[in-house]
Design goal:
With about 80 residues, the protein is mainly alpha-helical. Helix content is about 50%, strand content about 5%. It has four helices and two strands; from the N terminus they run H-E-E-H-H-H.
Amino acid sequence: MQIGLLCTDGISPDADGYPVPLIAGKSFTGLAIRCWPTTNYVSWAKAFPEYLEQLQLPFDKEYEFALEMVGMGGD
């Protein structure tokens, strides 16, 4: 949730120093922050695919394409 709120103000992939309050003592690059939703999507797709739609992240096609690229897609 905190990362999502950070993104509402815009994230520069080239910038450093984005804090996430729940991860004390660490800051992140803009690129790392921007990758977080994708990582979250993949984690949920693997662990809880039945709840994936509830995330409301638009990565369905990209995820399926990635699975095909590594030979894990299809039926």
